[in-house]
Every structure is written in structure tokens, then in C-alpha cells.
Amino acid sequence: TTVNVKLSRSSGIYRASEPVEGKIVMNSPTSISHQGIRLSVNGSVNLQDPKGSRFIESFYIYGAIKPISIVKKTIEVRSSGK
Q1: 73 pLDDT exceeds 70?
Q2: Contact 70, 46 (CB under 8 A)
Q3: Which of 59, 24, 62 is nearest to 41 (CA)?
Q4: Is the pTM for the entire model greater than 0.85?
Q5: Closest by alpha carbon to 44, among 24, 18, 71?
Q6: CA 67 to mean position of chain CA atoms
Q7: Is the pLDDT of residue 51 over 70?
Q8: Which of 15, 19, 44, 82 has the most CB atoms within 10 Å of its CB?
Q9: Is the Cβ–Cβ distance between 56 and 65 less than 8 Å?
């Protein structure tokens, strides 16, 4: 059984306030039962400043900027069934 998430944009790049759209494609040689299908989304950003801004420098910890979590959500796609 294989599970693929195919986004509607081949680049996979979305801007703030744009909906992320796509399909969940499951392929199995036989019929399968499931206890529900959930999609978990975790998103983070990395701050980058090629000019060395003092504002960005204030976020440095031991010379590295830690990623900032912007979304963490689980969505039920299908309830249990076949």
C-alpha cells in the first residue's frame, strides 16, 4: 500500500493566506479497512537576512536561528470504513 499527497502546485510553494490544495492518493493491491484517515500538517519558517540586520541578529542563539513554528494541525479526512 502506498500513500501520496499530491499538491495542486507542482512547486509546492504557497504564500500566506493562499489555501493549500491537493489530493491524498492511496494505492493498494487489495481492499483495506481503516480506523480513519487523518492528515497532520506541521509548518515552520526560517528567518534569513543576507544583510545582517540587527533585528535578526537578536534572534541568534549560538550562531544559528531556530525555525519558528507557524502551524500544527490535524484534520480528519475520512472517518473509519473501507
Answers
A1: yes
A2: no
A3: 24
A4: no
A5: 71
A6: 14
A7: no
A8: 44
A9: yes
